[in-house]
Amino acid sequence: MSNHLLYSIAFSKIIGLNDKQRKLLLAHYNSAETIYKERFNLQIPFKDVNDDIKKILLNDWPWEETESELAFIQKHDIHATCIFDADYPNRLVHCEDAPTVIYVKGNMDFNKKHLVSIVGTRQHTVQVNNVIHEITEGLAHLNIGIISGMALGIDGIAHKNALNKKIPTWGVLAHGLDQIYPKQHRRLAIEMLEQGGLITENKKGAIPLPYFFPKRNRIVAGMSDVTIVVESDIQGGSMITAKLAFDYNRNVFAIPGKIQDPKSKGCLLLIKSNNAQMYYDSIDFLETMKWALPEMNPNRIDPKNPQLTLVLEPDALSILEIVERQGPIHPDDIIRQLRIAPGAFATHLFMLEMQDFVFKQAGNLYIRL
């Protein structure tokens, strides 16, 4: 292990310094090793680091703990990177409170052309599965990665959808890399190591205390060009992530939902307060972000094409319009409205599914794609 990493990790573990102060010191002195060797004669030309900070730097540095951490990451093939290193996340480094050191298990190729964070509540509605499917499918043609927080619910769904579409995905942890929380995501974490990986600023042995989750969220927001909030109440980790992204001058999008649904209140508030743009669909998102659009599949009909009426039979078009207007909706409700023979209805519905116009959710409910 290099001296650079030894001093960087030790510097990151000093109690009494915050991330902003560490970053200012490293920017001025170029390395933690220089800070250590010149700590008795520090001349610091900014007010954020005062005499109390100088006294903290004169205390004994945590060398024993650092040696233990270095042995752990070497044994488990974990990569540690310090702020201002070439392989440090190139978006995160611009955040004033970026962590001094992050630990990465898996793929280090997170400095991609595009990175998107997808976040949301743990207690989500059934339609988020299709929403996240639409988001990831619409982005799969890009040189892109997906970031989230490995939590149950929307985070896990985002990671799984990314894996299914061969999109690299990284989970940011609120604990050390000697454990996986929640335990239900152990298999998911292993699968993510093939296409992305796990990221944390926490030392081994650090357990997921409530304090660590907001700190984790700043990495999720800071690593990404844009954060998409799928569902959230007014209070919660997703709203913290959205605010952090907004404060970092990153783009924020929110999925609008029903005004009576508490799980949509946070998203609606973000849109109402102009802290987020409304996510309409992947094409609108790509156009807003000025990212490349996918090449159109000539075998797939564009549902928004005005020539749709010339392609679909009248009954099929009527079914599609009802699903778009009223979905999620049960087939029996559509039959009652159209007064169509069940056999003919089943044929039309099957064709709409095969052409990716409609999607069946749990409970035999259909929604528009």
CATH top-level class of the largest domain = Alpha Beta
Just name the CATH architecture of the largest domain.
3-Layer(aba) Sandwich
By DSSP, the count of extended strands is: 11
Total helices: the number is 16
Q: Average pLDDT, to the nearest integer?
A: 88
Determine the strand fraction and express it as a percent band. 5-15%
Distance between the termini: 51 Å
**Largest sheet entry:** 9 strands, mixed
Tell me the strand order in the biggest sheet: 1-2-6-5-4-3-7-8-9
Based on the structure, what is the oligomeric state of the protein chains? single chain
Ranges where pLDDT stays below 50 over 5 or more residues in a row are 297-304, 306-310
Q: SSE order in H/E notation?
A: HHHHHEEEHEHEHEHEHEHEHHHHHEE
Q: What characteristic shape results from the CA principal axes?
A: elongated
Radius of gyration: 24 Å
Would you tell me which CATH topology of the largest domain applies?
Answer: Rossmann fold
Helix content class:
40-55%
Provide the number of structural domains: 3
Structural class call reads: alpha/beta
